[in-house]
Structures are given as C-alpha cells and as structure tokens.
Amino acid sequence: MSKEYTVDVAVAGTGGTGLAAADAAASNGLSVIAIEKLDQIGGNTRISSGFFAIDTKEQREAGLHLSTQEAIRQLNEYNHYLNNGPLTKRIVENAKPTLEEVEKLGMGIKLNPTACTTQFAHRGNPYAGGSYHMYQDKEKAYPRIQKSLENKGVKFLFNTTMQDLIQAEDGTITGLTAKAENSEDITIHAKAVVVATGGFGGDKKRVDRLMHTDRLRKLGVPSMGEGMNALEKAGGVNIDSHALIHAAQLAKSKVTQKTSKKHLAGFSDNPLTRVLLTPLMWVDTDGRRFTNEDTVYDTVLWANAAYNVGGMYYILVDKATLEAFTNGQEMTVSKAGPGGSTKKGDFISLADKAVDDGIAFKGVDLEELAKNAGFDKENLLNSVKRYNKAVKFKNDIEFAKRGINLKFSVEKGPFYAIKAQVAYLGTVGGVRVDDHLRVLDSSFKPIKGLYAGGANAGGYYEGQSYPAYEGLASGFAWTSGRLAGLAAVEDMRSEVNKDGSTK
Ligand SMILES: Cc1cc2nc3c(=O)[nH]c(=O)nc-3n(C[C@H](O)[C@H](O)[C@H](O)COP(=O)(O)OP(=O)(O)OC[C@H]3O[C@@H](n4cnc5c(N)ncnc54)[C@H](O)[C@@H]3O)c2cc1C
To answer: 281: which strand partners?
Structure first.
C-alpha cells in the first residue's frame, strides 16, 4: 500500500518547531502537510513549561525592560562564542514576535510570576531568570493550535513516521518518505522540507554512546532520530547534538508532568525529594565527594556537576539530618527541576522505604554503609571527615560551598546513601544551519529545499552544557521553526522571481 501527496512544504514532526514552521508557511499561502509519529501534536514542547523571550509585552507590564543585545551578549559569553552568532541574534530578536504568534494560535502565555526566583541561582539576572514565559492550560491550548493551523489549510498526518528525504541528483531536496502505522508507504513531494523531528532523545543507546555514560535517566517523547539521520545522509553536518541534561531525580522516582504555579516542571509526590533538592553532602559511586552542592539551585550546573561523575551520585545523610527534615528544619528547597512535594513526612521511614525499594543504602556505621553501597571505604571515610570539618568551620576548602549551606554534618548513624540520577530532556543541537535555518552542507552551502529547527538544528548551544537561561530550548523550537517556515516562503518566492515560475 502506498500514498502520494504533492505540496509546497512538508514538515516532519509537530513539536514547537514543526507547528511554527507549518504556521509560517501556511500563513503565507503555501500548501503544507505536517506528519507526526505520535497521535497528537506537541512532542516534547508540549511537556515543556515555558518560552525564553526578551522585551515582551508581559515583561514590560511587569516593569522589566530587557535588551535583546544584552541577551545576545550573555548567550554568546555563556557559549564561549562557539555558538552561531548570527543565528543566536536572529533567534533572540525573533522570539518576541514568535511568542505573540503562538499566543494568536491559541496558547495562553504568562510571564513566570515568580520571575528570577524559580532557580535561585538566577536571582539578580533577569535574563536567565526573568524571561520565562509560561504556557497556560496546555491540554486545551494544543488542540486550539491544531484547529488554528487546520483552518489555515495545514493537513496533519498522525501516526506517520518520516523515514528519509528525497534528493535530486543536484542535491536539491524534493520531498520525504514516511511510513504510516498501518505500514502504508507515504511519499510527499515538496518544494521545501522542514525536518522538525526533535532529535533522538528516545534512542537511549545512542545517547549513552554520545554522552559516554549509561547512567542518565531519559525523559520525554520517543524520538528515535530518523530525521537527524536523514539530514546527515542528505549532506547535513551534525555539529553539536547532545543530551539536554537537566537536574537530577531520585532513582526510580515518579515525576508527574503536571505543571502548576508551584511546581513548574512537574513534581514528585515523595517528600524525600526535598533531600534531593537541598545542598546536602553528595558522593560519587566510589564514595568520593565531587562538587559544590550549591549547584542544586541551578538545573544546568547541577546536572553538569553530576554528569562529571557519570550522572549518578548519592546524597549522604545521617539520622540527625533526617530528623531535622521530619521537623521541617531543612535548608531552602531548590525549585530547579521537578519540584519536591511539600507534604510532611517521617524522613527516617521514608529513607528506610527507599532502602527496601533498592534506591538507597543504609549502614549502622560508615564502614557498613560503604560495604552495602559499594563505595571505597577509605574514600568515604576521608570525604566525610573533610566534609564534617567544613561544616564545623563553615569553610569548604575543597569545593567552596557557601557557609550558609554547610548546615548538616554526617556524624551519627545509622547513615543513608540515597541514589540520584541526572535526567535528560531529549537532545538538543544538531546539523549546521545558517541564520535562516537552511541546512548547510560540509562546504557551508545551503542544501536547496532543506530546513531544520529545534532539537535538530545546531549552533544555538556551545556543546554539552545547555545554557541555564530558562525556556531556551522551548523558545528556540518555536522561533527556529517559524524562521525556517519563513525562509522556505522567501526562498520559494525568489525562485519564482528568477524565471517567473515556481520549481
Ligand atoms: C520533561 C521535559 C520538560 C522540558 N521543559 C522545558 C522547559 O520548561 N523549557 C525549555 O526550554 N525546554 C524544556 N524542555 C526541552 C524542550 O521541550 C525541547 O528541547 C523542545 O521542545 C524541542 O522542540 P522540537 O520541536 O525540536 O521537538 P519536539 O517538541 O520533541 O517535537 C518533535 C516531534 O517530532 C515527532 N517525531 C519524532 N520523530 C519523528 C519522525 N521520524 N517522523 C515524524 N515525527 C517524528 C515527535 O513525536 C514530536 O512530536 C523539556 C523537555 C522535557 C522532555
């Protein structure tokens, strides 16, 4: 069985990137088919909470007057100027009109009412912390967006997975091939193709190879990378794809994706998550302390620090610390990453349950804990000794943790080591594009008819460290998608102008 379609623009993937590309093309009178592997639009963008944009109406109303130039400068510096400068500039400058367009399509958006405070490390930097525009009532908004696009003539094919691009001998892209759920072969002939399939975060083995560890925890939709593979096969160059590592979670914990004002990126209803979300003592899987635990207040720095030890580490606590948590005397609970339940609890029972569930280890003394958890005994004893000294003198000579967070020593058994795992939210980065999201070949020349955005496009991020500016990936998805759609329109118009007929 097979089916063929002919359109101006074929869009593969309907996350923020694909939806914005389809909208831009259809709004300019082009015929568009958007194919989607799943049975609904949205992809990881639908799970994400908000959108980074500068100098928006919402910001001005909140008294925040931000400059796009300053945002561009900060992003370039964060990325060590390894990012694509012209692309970064166009994305930052076009985030605001894109946000307004997404609102028109049916998404309610409000500036994070706790601007600058969700990630405590961002206090004082309105660019990193005050630019997070939160999606409202997403479950109703996405069907509205779909309807708006259908009204503009976009045809959606669901349960349809892109397989490959169709490329003419001169290298021009002339369409794509896909497979429907019922195994029907689909061919879409198109003058332009936007590959918006959202990277390859669903392919855990590939991510493990790329990130050199199998200890990361996968979140998000199962995008397997067919789009990225096709882009490379057509001559695109994968310059910087990597996993978007983001905070950590208690091993095996369940995180709901329910976003609310209180829990911006979902939350776990286990109160033990508060132990994860406070800067206690952390050790690697060999029992060695490895970082300044204050990083828990920034999703990215936290994930990066723990990624350095493979993405898995343990939170070390003694009985007195757990009792303090039971009595509500913990330190400030981070709101970076999935929030912690605010429910009260008996933390010793919770930790014992974690031991029973195989996600924590216990020992009456540190020697027994080392044996049970598989730590090197000497490493653990030395790390604890040095940490307790740091707590006593409020001076961490090893990792420079702030004195205020050197609150709990690890002294009286029983001792617990609670397992945490860095999560990744799909992949970001991808093939080299120009500032119009045209895919470039190895000679830095556009491959005619081929565009990529969102988690398939490279150049917006430096490399393995995702910039800690809230909403950057989601904002990039919508904005790059829109620019890719507009570039397809423009390129098609200039073809017409050349010889009076579209090709
Ligand atoms: C839990 C979670 C929370 C997040 N929170 C935030 C946040 O708050 N802020 C932020 O900036 N970023 C966040 N992110 C990251 C951000 O959502 C993504 O980087 C971004 O949305 C990617 O957009 P995209 O359009 O490239 O891909 P997606 O939105 O993932 O869309 C890709 C679409 O393509 C489809 N697809 C895949 N393969 C194929 C194929 N072969 N054929 C057809 N269709 C295919 C997928 O099903 C999907 O619908 C979060 C991610 C997750 C998982």
So the answer is: 316
